[in-house]
Amino acid sequence: MKKLLIAAAITGTLSLAACGPSTPAAQNVESSADNTADMMENTAADIRSDASNTADSVEATADNKADAIENRADAVRDAGENRAEAIDKKAGH
Question: Tag placement on the chain: N or C end, fewer CB within 10 Å?
């Protein structure tokens, strides 16, 4: 029984040691590293968000340009139909 208690105490001590640093200096180093890593991850998320916003803006600009060209194409088609009708009208058809 005594051996079992000693083994349990050693296992508990080892598991506590694996939980993290025990000295304040080591805790500060770990905390600082965690904070730096969190800031880096936030920066990465911001970059992805900015890229998505930029892509959306580029897509909207491209759509607007395409719509303007399609509108001009419709105007050219309408003008051609109007001229053709005027020619037919003048020819008596």
Answer: N
Residue 61 has which token pair? 């600009």
Q: pLDDT tens digits for 35-78?
A: 999 999 999 999 999 999 999 999 999 999 999 999 999 999 99
**What is the spatial distance between Cα 46 and Cα 34, in angstroms, rounded to a whole number?**
18
Q: Could you tell me how far CA 46 lies from the centroid of its own chain?
A: 8
Kindly state the DSSP code that residue 43 receives in the 8-state scheme. H
Q: What is the DSSP string of 41-88?
A: HHHHHHHHHHHHHHHHHHHHHHHHHHHHHHHHHHHHHHHHHHHHHHHH
Question: Quick check: 10 and 17 in contact, CB under 8 A?
Answer: no
Rounded distance between C-alpha atoms, residue 58 and residue 76, angstroms = 27
